[in-house]
Design brief:
With 72 residues, the protein is an alpha+beta fold. It has a single domain, classed as RNA-binding S4 domain (Structural Genomics Hypothetical 15.5 Kd Protein In mrcA-pckA Intergenic Region, Chain A). The strands form two sheets. Strands 1-7-6-3-4 form a five-stranded mixed sheet, with no helix packed on it. The protein is globular. 18% of the residues are buried.
């Protein structure tokens, strides 16, 4: 599981997908979410603006799992 560290209250799903190297740019996020299964805390998710907070676990089909952490 890869850790994505943030210094803010939350990160949007589209930003996490870019940081996790799942997509190359923000313009790719909408088709990516339509074609790939993404789960947040075990629930399917397709909203690119979904707010992810520390402790959330994101599973991306073909790319692995990510967990959001607060940078200390």
């Amino acid at each position: 599981m890869k850790e994505i560290e943030i210094t803010t209250e939350y990160i949007q799903l589209q930003q996490l997908l870019k940081l996790g190297d799942c997509i190359g740019s923000g313009g790719e996020v909408k088709p990516f979410l339509q074609e790939n299964e993404v789960k947040v805390n075990g629930e399917p998710e397709n909203r690119r603006g979904r707010k992810l907070r520390p402790g959330d676990v994101i599973e991306v089909a073909g790319s692995g799992s990510f967990v959001v952490r607060t940078r200390q």
